[in-house]
Structure formats: structure tokens, C-alpha cells
Amino acid sequence: MSGKEKTMKKHISATAALLVALIVLAVLPADAQTLPAKPAGPTQALPKVFLDWPGADLDFFRTEIPFVDFVPGLGEAQVRVLVTPQGTPGSETFVLELSGLKEFQGDDNTLTHTPAPGDKPEDVRKGLAGLLKLGLMRYVAKTPAAKFVSINFQDLVKPTSVVDKWDFWVFNLSANTFLMGETRYRDAMYYGSFSANRVTPELKVQTSVYGNLQKMRFDFGDDIYESSSHGYGFSSLVVKSLSQHWSAGAFLSAQSSTYANLKVSVSAAPAVEFNLFPYSESTKKQLRVLYRIGYTGTRYNEETVYFKTAEGLFQEFLSVAYEVKRPWGMVSLNLEGSNYIHDFSKNRIELGGEVSFRVWRGLSFEVGGSYARIRDLLSLPRGGASYEEVLLRQRQLATGYQYSFSVGLRFTFGSTRSNVVNPRFGNGGRSISISM
Amino acid sequence: MRRHLGIVFVLALAVSSLAAAMSQEQSAIDELKKSAVKIYLDCGSCDLEYIKTEITFVNYVRDRLEAQVHVLVTTQATGGGGIEYTLTFMGQNDFKDTSDVQKYFSMKTDTDDDVRRGLVKALKMGLMSFVGRTPIARRIAIDYTRPENAGPGRDRWDSWVFSLTGSGYFSGEESYMSRMANASFSANRVTPKSKVRLGVSADTEKQKYDIDGEVITGTRSSWNGSGLFVKSLGEHWSAGFFLEGESSLYSNIDLGLTAAPALEYNAFPYSQSTRRQLRFLYKLAVNPVKYREETIYGKTRETLFRESLSATLDLREKWGTVSVSASGSHYFHDFSKNQLDLFGIVSLNLYKGLSVFGLVGRSWIHDQLSLLGREPTFEEQLLRLRELPRTSDYFVSIGFQFTFGSIFTNVINPRFGSSRSGGMSIQIN
Question: What are the residue boundaries of the structural domains of chain B, listed by start?
Fold first, then answer.
């Protein structure tokens, strides 16, 4: 075949294809009234379903359930739906047996439709189609048609509409240890806690007691350094919902910590919160402003830089938190300020934030950081910290500021259809996560 | 006037009867919710709060044995750098006779919101088989928007995916400062038949302490380039080749190159890898290396031959997670230069709110050929800037958790912030 003949042939086949397409287009709109449009390519193929129910009104099911292709015989079907009416005619129940064939082999389920007494035949049929839609989802989900299906619950329902003999109280007891070491280094951590929580939309109660202990040992050959630090305490939070935007509550806590030089510290603080967006949207966006005022009574381990061994102080606190999570990325910003009432110059202000943003297709950008201006370290011990305590970060140190900043940029390009999983020689992406 | 009153009266009657009808309807729906499917969502990487706000037609329980459906979500990396989520729906109690497996694939470029939406969709579709058995089914609407036909075209990148990342981290206070930076580039091509992974990365880190005017500075830097080629030989066997080049201050290596052919056997079929694997990997490596400073053995450069064997068992079942591995290696010029590593993690979701976990790692190290010839300084030791001689190391962690009380976890209450449950979280890659 010469080159000219080849191009000629190409032209002819292109013209023919165009004609066929035109005819299909012309015929489609008229046809679409009664039958769902036939998908164009095999990639958009709908699951083929054989409705095994002699006398069924197939046209009705075709219009009700457009996301499957009802086929006339079992031969080409991928799913068989056997409908068996049971009981006396007029008040029967319908058993729907769905069985997967071919690539859906083994995908089976049985559902039952019990019409409400007094349902008209149309209602019964409609109910049946509704249930069949649910039953077919497992197959549709495994085809490209899944992308075009949406499932919605038509009502708002209270999450507390359940029968619960514990009245939403949940108790939790946990204990963990972590030990590690090598020839010249040892580290042991112990952690335990007990909590009792009750969370309902109207009221949130969270209480816990906890304790932790850490021991370290370094062997420098001629010199051995050992250290031990601990912390324990109690904390509780009660929040009452006032409206979609307002809440009121109180924090109560007691703690002891070697890191912070606290022998014992007890505080109580009532608080109010305002959310600019309704709380029901909080997984998508929230802008919360929290004000807290409280009293803290403290006894120190060592005399502080202000020559105190014990004191009782009032402190106020304000925070603004903004969070939004959207298809383009997420933003989280946090601004906090606090001061002591007896001396306003003893204060602290902290700004923190995190942004991750998809700039364009494979290009995404992440930035996060925090800055704190600190003028309220009242508990610092006068004696300072040892050389080793500084290097091992076991003591809070005198500082007027604290910052951290991170930035990351990622650009990915190339194939966008590589959904292949190939686990051979490990794939560096399997993670185990344990939350306690 | 009277007509007005009449209208008002009729209106009031209409409003009140409408309200009554609505509240009656609402209580009917609340009644439906009581008999909704009880599910146990076993997923460490899911945004649970989002799922619970989006899917309200089921009841969430915290104990797996109470549930009618146990939804186990396992993940694996895809060739494109995304994640394959396998959702295994296991019917339990009165739903024992049915089960299903659904998949959802995220792309590397997807944002968190894209991923959680996709997962919710897959969850909803999979749950329908079970929801269809409860009365709440009649309040579910399923809609279909007919697509404009445009099937996927040909992949002009031929499965190659490239990724470039850079990141920096800076922190400090008056007496302390730390800086870290990292850059990397990778090119991967993963198909069921073969796998190619190429990557280069560089890291640098600097720490500075100020103790009463005395300044201590520590730096660490390293770079690394690697390549992996794997060919699939059936459902159980694979053959491949590792290539690596590295430089590291910590390990006293100026330039080290490794080339290693390898063979792997998986006792389970690779197609089950998201739930179970038992893999044995044998590697034979040649490693020419040039040191930064003379080593403890008086070498500045040498070429090493080494073989290694590792076995890894990973199981993810209803009752928990098991991951155990053992690997051993030795050099050919001196068999006493060897290393053995054991690692195990077991997390069991036992019974009625009781779960336990254990984590163990133990190494016997007799092959630190690159150790410094001199004694490291005090700061190098304390800040762990240099590899120190050791013959063994270990870590052990055990813990338990017991939860009792209400089995339902339907409620999301974000007021005053949502606190994470205390305790610990371990992520191992």
C-alpha cells in the first residue's frame, strides 16, 4: 500500500467515524427518554445486572436505577438479583438475593424489603427500587461509574439517639513504658493515666489523672551522669453549649513537675468561647475566641529568681484560633496572650500557624512556625541548671523568646494514573500506627 | 376584622400542626437511628471527626466486638506516590453472613480534604450493603449524574513519577538554636511487573548552645543517592538490584558506594500484601568506602564484601497488628564482623475494651568498621554527633489500655478545642 493510499484510507475512515458519531448524536435524545444512554466506551461500562424476577416492570427499574445496565439474560450479567416475594399477596415481603458473577464472584448479599401496611403497589415498587440501589452500591463502587454517584442521608439526626446504659460516660485506664539503651547510654520512661469523659453535644466533661517518670544514664568512661525527672497531675474540663456560637466552661488542674520547678500547683479558671462559624461546621472551618481568667496557687521545688518559695496569683488569658480545611489545602492560625493581674508586665504572647497549599496541580507548599515573647517565667529556680541539664533539655531555661519555623516545597510531575501497588522489596509506605 | 382573626387562627393551627408533624417525624427518625448499623472503624490514619460528621446514618462504637460491621482500613503506597486505602467490611454478630472489600486511591498531590472526602465516599458505598438491612435505609438517597463521556486517555509519562522536595526547620530560644535543612529528588516507575526507584537527598543540621557565655556548636551533614530495580517473578518471588552512594559525618564516611543484587520470597501471595506478608530477602553487597578520618582499625579506605538475610512478618487482622522482623549480616573478610537486629511490634485489640501492645528492638553490633580512630569529644558524645562504639542496643515498650463505659462514640463536640486522647502514638515505616 503506497503512502498516498494510506492517507486516503485514513480520510475515509475518519469521515465514516464522524458520520456514525453524528447519527448516534441525532438518535440519542429521542432514545434517552425511555432508555438510559448507552455509555460510549468500555471504560465507562456500567455493571451489568440481571433482574431475576419474572413479570418485573424493567422499564421502571431502568429509570429508577440509571447507574447499572439491566441485561435480559444471565449470560452476560455481572450481578444477579433474585427477587422472591414471600407471604400472602397484597402484604408480602420481598427478599432480594444479590450474587456477584464473573469478576464479582463471591460478592453476595441478601436484603429484605418489608412494605409498610397500607402501601400502594407504586410505593412498594419504589421502596424496592430504593433498597436495590443500596444493595447494588458494592458493585458500582468497583466500576468507574462510582465517581458519578452520590449518597446522602436525607435527615438531620442527633448523634445521641441511641440506647446507652452508661449515659455516654467513657472511662479509660492506660499504662505505658518505654525503655531504651546501648552500651553507654540508657533511658527509661514510664507513663500512666486514668480518664473519665462524657461528651454530648450539650455538655462536655473531661477529667484525667496522669503521671510520668523519666530516668537517664550516660557513661562517659571515667564519668557517669544520671538524671531523673517526673511530672504528675490532674486536669479537668467542663464545657456547656450555649448556642451554635457560644460556650461556657471551666478548667481545673493540679500538677507537679521537676522540669518546671513546681512542687505543687493548683489552678481554677472559668472561661467563655465564641466561634464565628457554627460549631457544626468545625471540621471544615472554625474561628474560635477563648477568654479565661483564673487563680493559681503554687509551691516551688527551689526558690525562684524572684525569691519566692510559694505564691498565689491571678492570670488572664485570651486566644484566637482559626482553622480551615478545603480542597486547596489547609490553614491553621493560633494567637495567644496572657498576663498576670498583679503585674501586667509579666506576660506572654504567642503566635503560631501552619499553612499547606496546593499552588498548582503537583506543586504544593507548606509553611509553619511559631514565635513566643516570654516575660512571665516566674518559676525559674535561682540556682540555675547544670551543664548536663542544659544539653539534655531537662530544665526550663531563662529566655525572652522561643521560635520555630519550617518551610517545605514539593513538586510532583509525571504519570497521574500510577495507582499500582507493588510491594516487592518493600514499598516504603506501609505504616503501623498504634494510638493509646 | 373577624376574617383576619379567622385567617390568623387557621394559620396558627396550620403552623402548630406542621410543627407537631415535624417533631413527630423527627422522633421517628431518632427512632430509626437507634436501630442503625453499629460500626467499628479500625483506621489509624482517618480523620474520624470528619467521617462522623459526614456519615450520620450509622452508630459508631468503640469496641470491635459490639459492632455489626468491623471496617478495617489498611494502607499501602502506590507507584504514583499516593496511597491505596483498602477498606475491608467484615460483618459480625447478626450480619455475619456478608462482607466486602472496597478500595480508594489517593494521589500524591491530593490535599487532606481531597483524601478525607474520597475516603468518606468509599466508606458510604461499602456501608450500603449493611445499611440496607436496617430501617434507616429508606431515608438514604442515591443519585447519579450521568457523565459526559471522556474515558481516560493514554499515559504519556509511561508510569514515571518525579518528585522534588525541599524543607527547612529552624528553632531557638536565648540559649539554644537549631537549624535543619533537607532537599531531595526522586523518580519512580512502578508497574505490577517491575519497579524502579531512584532518589537523591541531602541533609544538614546545626545546633548551638550557649551556657554562661560558653558556646557549643554541633553540626551534622550527609547526602545519599540510591537506586532500586525489581523484577516480579510470579506471586511469590522477585529479583532485584540495589545501588547506593552516601556520605555522612555521623558515620565518618566521606564516600561509600554499595552495589547489591538481591532475591526475595514472600510466603503469602504479593496480592495480599496490605493484610499479610512474610518476606525473606537475601542480599549480596560490594561496598568500596573512603573514610573522613582514620578509623579505629587504621583504615582510610577499603572495599568490603557483605551478605545479609532478613525475614519480615506483617499481619493486620481484626484482632490487631503483628510486625516482626529479624535481619543478620556479616562481612566476608572477617566473619566475626557481623550484626543481628530483631524488631517486633504486637498490638492486640483483645476483649471488651482491653488492648495491649508491646514493642521490642534489640541489636547486636560487631561491625562498626567506620568508627573514629580518636576518642570523640564530650560535646560530640552528648549531642550524639558521632557514632559511638557499642556492642548492643535495645528498646522495649509495653503498655495496656482498658476502656469501659458507653460503647458509642457518635458525638463530636469541638467546643474549647477537641483534645486528642492522651497517651502515645507510634508510626513505623
Answer: 33-138, 160-312+368-388
CATH of residue A341? 2.40.160
Nearest CA to B164 out of B198, B187, B197 is that of B187
Per the CB < 8 Å rule, is A159 touching B412? Answer: yes
Q: Where are the alpha helices (DSSP H) in A86-161?
A: 121-140
Rounded Cα distance, B109 and A361, in Å: 7
Q: Do the domain assignments include residue A115? A: yes
Question: Cβ contact (<8 Å) for A138 and B102?
Answer: yes
Task: Give B313-340 pLDDT, tens digit per residue.
Answer: 989 888 888 989 999 999 999 999 999 9
The answer to whether position A422 is within a domain reads no
Arithmetic mean of pLDDT, A19-26: 42
Q: How far apart are CA A269 and CA A288, in angstroms?
A: 18
Task: Output the CATH code of domain B33-138.
Answer: 3.30.160
* Total tally of structural domains belonging to chain A: 4
| Span B16-30, average pLDDT | 72
Domain residues for the domain of A67 are: 42-148
Q: How far is CA A58 from CA A51, A71, A79, A162, A257, in A?
A: 8, 10, 15, 39, 73
Same domain, A303 and A360: yes
Kindly list the strands in the beta sheet with A69-70, ordered across the sheet, starting from the edge strand earlier in the chain: A69-70, A48-52, A79-86, A93-100, A108-113
Three cell numbers, residue B309: 538475610
pTM equals 0.79
What is the torsion angle, in degrees rounded to the nearest 10, for the CA atoms of residue A48, residue A135, residue B115 and residue B81? -40
Model confidence pLDDT, tens digit, residues A99-127: 999 889 988 999 999 888 888 888 888 89
Whether B142 and chain A come into contact, CB under 8 Å, resolves to yes
Q: Would you say residue A79 lies in a domain?
A: yes
Q: Which of A186-216 are b and which e, b meaning 16 or more Cβ less than 10 Å from the residue's Cβ?
A: bbbbbbbbbbbbbbbbebbbbebebebbbeb
Q: What's the complex ipTM?
A: 0.78
If you ran DSSP here, which 8-state letter would residue B175 be given? T
Q: Which of A36, A159, A436 sits opposite B399 (nearest CB)?
A: A436
Q: Which of A37, A131, A409 is nearest residue B132 as measured by Cβ atoms?
A: A131
- Cell 466506551 -> residue: A41
